[in-house]
Design goal:
Length: 440
Amino acid sequence: MNKTKRFCAIALAAMMAVTAFSGCGGTDTTSSGSASTTPADGTVSVEGGDNEDPLYGEGANGTISLKVWGPDAAQDLLKEQCAAFIEDMKPYGDIEIEVIPQGEADAANLVTTDASAAADVFGFACDQLDKLVSSGNLLKVATAEKETITAENSESSVKAATYGDDLYAYPETGDNSYVLFYDKRVVSDEDAQTLEATLAACKEQNKQFVMDAGNGFYACLFAFTGGLEVNGLDADGVQQFNDYDEAKVVKSLMAFQDLLGQYSDIFVNGETTKVVDGFLSGSVGAGIDGSWNFASAKDALGDDVGFAELPTIDIDGEATPIVNMFGYKLIGVNSSTQYPSTSVALAMYLTSEECQIQRAEQLNWGPSNKVAAEQDVVTSDAALSAVIAQSEHSVAQVGVSDKFWDPMKVLGNRVVEFDDPFTEESAKEILDQTIANIKG
């Protein structure tokens, strides 16, 4: 089946499914023309050819106009992909898509604040799924699309897009996490295997080590390495945790504070932007940064850039893998869209194998699609290989309360207060207080 026929079939299934769920229907229409444009304002549009429209009855009264949100780094490619989608669909109607810069981190807040003003199709981080579903702002994925998505994507990414027994979003990436970035002229590949050696190598050449310990997304690794895990939300939306060993978590907090404190003169508690900025200025030897900055780090250091899964840390004489938060980027369809069938078809296209490979090639984003993840562009890339390896030592960013982040931020900042070293009692106290504050 060629690409056009494949996505026409998807669109037809989507329209039928949406009709069944919401009673939305449409009549056949005819369109004419063949012009395709990509205006400077970001709107991508195409006039359909002469063809009876069995799919896009939504466009019976004129052009189908959609808004799509995506992050700044992906704007050019997203515009190209939207243009390709409507080029495939031009025999069936007039479509235009306005591509608007909007980061995934703020998408849920904006959609839930004013769904009518939000994008029809938008990217978001998987920890926002609960909020979007509970507020009624996501269109549930129909059975036919659910079967396709489940078959084509990794089990963990599908889980990240699932609420209860239902699928509510379309997996876009399997790499929304962070690893060790390093300058190979400062830190060797062997050094990068342990946090102790990494810090020592930076110290030897008077280079900084950067970590955003005051950000809950990164700071959670201090506790997660000791065995703490999030375990979804209860019926009242209260964060649940695993049956963790408090003594081990306390030892982890103390180990991080002790080791980082030994290198307090080169340790920088700052935003991850300081990693690549420091590579450019020559002040940074290594740091913890996210997969979204792979490309900029490569630009900064060229062949001298190194990537590795997070190093081990010695806890009670044992080299312990650092455990982090691992998330997924998802694409959702706004339940308030005037064009649910077209929006669903577009979401399916943007998360397809073809589009995920393009993002891996041009943006260095790791695919959730199983076939895309096996391509050379992924397996031969040190950065993507590092993030895939890190996924084996991670806690999925699924079922995370909005109340999780600020208390974990406080914990992280406390760990790097080197002038006030932990005792077992004080470390236990801050851990207990963090859990209590998260649960509210």
